[in-house]
Amino acid sequence: MTSNFSIVQCIFNREQYAPEEMQRILREAEQDESSAAKLLADDAMDINPVRTAVMLAMGNNYPNQELHYVSYMEMFMAAMKNMLHTEAVVERVPCQEDEEQPCYAASQCLDGDIRFVAGLIASEPVYLKLAERYSEEELPEMDEMAQDSIEEFINVLNGMFSVSLGEEKIETDLGLPRFGKNVSPQGKNQLRLRVHSSIGSFQVVMATDEFF
User: Fold this and answer.
1) What is the DSSP string of the chain?
2) pLDDT tens over the chain, length 212 residues
3) Is residue 51 a contact partner of residue 70, using CB atoms and an 8 Å limit?
4) Angle at CA 48, nearest 5°, toward 208 and 189?
5) What is the C-alpha to C-alpha distance for residues 92 and 53, in angstroms, rounded to an integer?
6) Is the CB of residue 50 less than 8 Å from the CB of residue 73?
């Protein structure tokens, strides 16, 4: 699977910027990507910066899920930019902490030749901003439209991932999206990754069974 090259992920992988400073860089890059390119030295180039970050976060703990987890995150990060019009980077270490409450989760299971569950968990303010980016509607409070927007985003993204798996002769069927509140994920072979975006941070969760 080919991923979109990310200048800001390259910058983040250099470990020179705190998350707060990185969010400023993300906002500027969202307006003009050349502003980020000016911060990147030629010797720091990485043609697969998302893959590098996810592989570092996984270490040697997910040998059977390695390729699927990496490929999914590459697609997820590309979708942040292409579908939510939001610059984002993923941390190079697993996420351990839960989101500030109230927080909301959306997930979906792919079942068939493999079983794969993926989704996101975000605090209410970030969840609403993500939903606004996807729906292109103003969403001042948590309601059914906000819930449906993120569920639809996850459904579209996971549908794309299922098609990609099918191209590798791995057949899967999509389950229905699920929604939860104040979730502390507990999935089998679970990997939680914090994503920093121009509109706030949240976590992506991948597992081999339902994590809430």
Assistant:
1) -PPPP-HHHHHHHTT-S-HHHHHHHHHHHHH-THHHHTT--GGG--SSHHHHHHHHHHTTS-TTTHHHHHHHHHHHHHHHHHTS---EEEEEEE--SPPPSSEEEEEEEEEESSEEEEEEEEEHHHHHHHHHHHHTS---S--HHHHHHHHHHHHHHHHHHHHHHHHTT--EEE---EEEES-----TT-EEEEEEETTEEEEEEEESS---
2) 444 678 889 888 887 788 788 888 899 888 887 777 778 765 557 889 999 999 999 999 988 877 899 999 999 999 999 999 999 999 999 999 999 999 999 999 999 999 999 999 999 999 999 999 999 999 999 999 999 999 999 999 999 999 999 999 999 999 999 999 999 999 999 999 999 999 999 999 999 999 99
3) yes
4) 15
5) 5
6) yes
Amino acid at 64: N
Written as six digits, the tokens of 196 are 């920093």
Which pair of tokens denotes residue 69?
A: 């987890």
Cα atoms in the 13 Å half-sphere on the side-chain side of 68: 27
Tokens of 148: 């449906």
Q: How far is CA 4 from CA 101, 110, 123, in A?
A: 33, 24, 27
